[in-house]
Automatic annotation (TrEMBL):
Xref: Pfam families: HMA (PF00403)
The entry's keywords: Metal-binding
Name of the protein this chain belongs to: HMA domain-containing protein
Gene3D superfamilies (alphabetical): 3.30.70.100
Keyword Metal-binding: yes
Keyword Metal-binding: yes
InterPro entries the UniProt entry points to: Heavy-metal-associated_CS, HMA_dom, HMA_dom_sf
Record-annotated HMA domain positions: 1-63
PROSITE patterns: HMA_1, HMA_2
Superkingdom assignment: Bacteria
Transmembrane segments: none
Amino acid sequence: MQVFQVEGMDCGSCMAKVMRAVQSLDPKAKVDIEFTSGRVAVETDESSEAICEVIAEYGYTVTPRV
């Protein structure tokens, strides 16, 4: 499981956009989002770089969490 910090999510619509972004990369990805804290956990075989890139394309600032 990979965990990311996503800045700029402040509503359910934002959460849905991030979910769509990740699933556009991997439709089978399991995504758990806590929009109040900005935590996004993704279970996928895709690289963290690819996930960061696709979420950033939707206008969010994203960084991997350690």
